[in-house]
Amino acid sequence: xxxxxxxxxxxxxxGLFIDTGAPGLYGRSGAFEDVIDRIDAAFVRAAGDDVTEVxxxxxxxxxxxxxxxxxxxxxxxLAGTVHAFCGAHGDHMELLxxxxxxxxxxxxxxxxxxxxxxxxxxxxxxxxxxxxxLAPEGGLFDLQxxxxxxxxxxxxxxxxxxxxxxxxxxxxxxxxxxFRAQWLERGQALVASLELPFSLDLANDPFFxxxxxxxxxxxxxQQLKFExxxxxHSEEHPTACFSFNxxxxxxxxxxxxxxxxxxxxxxxxxxxxxxxVAIALFNQHxxxxxxxxxxxxxxxxx
Amino acid sequence: MIERIRKLVAEFAGTNVDVGKLGDDGDLYxxxxxxxxxxxxxxxxxxxxxxxxxxxLLTPDTFSSISAIAKALDGLGVGVAS
Lengths: 302, 82
Hints:
The structure holds two protein chains of two kinds. Chain A is of the alpha+beta class. Chain A folds into two domains: 7-80 and 118-301, 2-Layer Sandwich (BirA Bifunctional Protein, domain 2); 83-113, no CATH class. Chain A has eleven helices and twelve strands. In chain A, strands 3-7-8-12-11-10-9 form a seven-stranded mixed β-sheet. In chain A, strands 4-6-5 form a three-stranded antiparallel β-sheet. Chain A has a two-stranded antiparallel sheet with strand order 1-2. In chain A, helix 2 (30-46) crosses helix 10 (274-285). The relative contact order of chain A is 0.16. Chain B has a single domain (2-75), classed as Non-ribosomal Peptide Synthetase Peptidyl Carrier Protein, Chain A. Helix content of chain B is 44%, strand content 0%. Chain B has three helices and no strands. Chain B has helices spanning 2-12, 35-49, 66-75. The interface between A and B is medium-sized, with 15 and 13 residues.
């Protein structure tokens, strides 16, 4: 008896994913991208009458901003830096010789000023801070970006490069917490409309090392992070498709973000993993989107 | 030991109140210690007392005050003599 092929295998065999040879790095078909676009639009629709400022950054960010953000204190294992050849003619010859011999050719690769964006909202905070104090109503931004996390995996829902659409709220603690509470409702309504099984749970980020255990315990004790989980590869370990994060004054202090009243701004974000929701849909409703239940198709295609 | 802990708290916790004036039971998080600072404090304590906190002690409660830290260290066999 043959084993059921893995979800990754089925996605590739159905032509939805294109294998690149690197785990967690896939091409996407037009049919897959159509679903991504529809989920993306549904996420924006879920924001209702919210007046957001739409901002798009490339998937690489300023290294200085990245360094100051504190990301390396928490997640050094996930970060990806961009390196480039910075040698002279002789070094180039050497590089080609090493390459031809199948040897390590990276000796003259030097870090550039670019780091791969780890989360869509990271480049935003210094840009907002540079504008001066927030308006009395605070700030509300809509961001979407490919993000990178170095965690090669055969789980199609744990990619190294994937898209995250975020809404980011900046303001006083009341404004920011009201935003998060509202999105906890909106996220559940959206996933329910897609007829996906889900649960909501307190969560923590994958902080690095022993210090990370303390960070994670603190994050949970203060209920700073919630995730909306959908079972994809297992019922016991469902996959986070949305996260709802209250950063308290972390970014406010880091970037000197001020409210109109002159207080340190608090921030929160809600993020949707677009590929994860798409994969959850294909897993739940079948590999051909045309055959999905009428209600799901209506929720996405109208 | 309390004074030694207080010195380490002053060095690593990044509180926005003078640690010298903070009581032994004063809440360090409320005094401005961030989660990142609490990790620095944990590592500083480990180095100073040559110990390793077991995983079940890696919680905010353990590092919430000078007396809480003293209690945890006491449980790890770091006595008053040190």
